[in-house]
Amino acid sequence: MDSLPTSATNGPAGLSAEADAEPHARLTFDLDVDLCVIGAGLAGLSVALEAAQAGLSVAVLESGRIGWGASGHNLGSVTPGYGVPIGDLIARVGLDHASALWALTREGMEIVRARATEEAMPGVALSDGALEVSNVDIGDRLVERLQTLGVDFGSEVEGWPIDKVRDVLRTNRYFHGIHYPTAFQLDGRRYLRGLERLARQAGARIFEETPAVSIDFAGIRKRISTPNARLRASDIVLAGSVHLGAPSPRVAETLLPVWRTAALTAPLGEQLPDAIAFAGSIADTDGVDHYRIVGGDRLLWASGETTFDVAPQRLAGIIRRRIAAVFPQLGQVEIAQTFSAAVGMTVHGMPQVGELRPGLWVASGFGRQGLATTAIAGRLIARGLTHSDERWKLFSPFDLVWAGGTIGRIVGQGVYFATREGALAAGALARYRERAAARTRVRDARAEVKQEERRARVALLRAAEAANVPPPNAPSRRPVPPPSPE
User: Which residues lie in coiled coils (predicted)?
Assistant: First the structure.
């Protein structure tokens, strides 16, 4: 849920900008290292940091600037789990295996929280709590989901009834909710830059605008060619996303590019707390909307996906309409900025983490689940290299699957539209049923009142007859006196 755009220049509430960072030098000389990481996003920097801290010599090659892609434009939500529905994950690998995978994301959350301190990353701005809300009345299914999350998977979760959800989110669009009290949010760009600083301090060497043109995997020492130099390494980690390209077309072809658009509103003032009284991030179970308050009185709102690159300004109207539909009391909000970045989605929806062949590793396909999963992926790969830790094999069932090329993008777009429209229709039907049920309850209550009045009337009549006294409002049976002579 967290690889979502925040800012292309300046983030919300005065967050750091990419232009503020000093560029690193290009690689212009030949170099020998233990590990070469291709890609300096969240995954690549996480691998580089962990490996350098373990004592390996590390070089990172980035074809552009650090954070120019989805890693530098994320919503900053740090939550457990993956983008695959829990039931689907259990059906594929079994309950115990799925629980172990889920535990890895909780470990990833702890890694991010330990790094993202104000001392190490000033201005990272942590805030606690995440709320997953349902667009339909899930009823008994909530209990089953809480059982799986809390008991089987060991996550700290709370089930919120409809009244509690609507107490903090003043809209009739949402029903039940699941609260993750240990989840948190942070400034995604500050975290990325902090991760870069930590990696450099640990000894990793990072080279920007240095694409890997080709890789020779033969031999113990792999050879990586760049435009101006060559690099040799014992191990290589492919940590790029949809832009990986030439270094490994096989990996790049397994990723479906998905652009998710987000917008930052203008300051909304005092009316915002009247609509949203929850400080954490909010996401609906259907993946239609994902948003949170930033800077005290602004909304950072992501909605809408496309498998083809579209200028985010063209999609601003969609987000404005979504905000108005969910929180009509906010009116037609002003959009200050729109943002977009491509994430790489795998066919099976799970990240690709592990060793492809001796000396060649992959950490890719994180989609919209970047912060916690990239953190644990970096640790698993580094410890696989230095401590023979084989926990990365938990991801082995999720092979490299071709994403279908252009046809796959067209099909993916169709599936997304169908899923989104189905979710919106289901939500509208649920709200209609809720209103119909409320009207039925009112009618039943009125009928019950009338029935009670009838029963009370009958009881009074019977009591009067038993006591041989006239019932209330009954005509008098006393003799009528004769008229006077006058």
Answer: 435-462
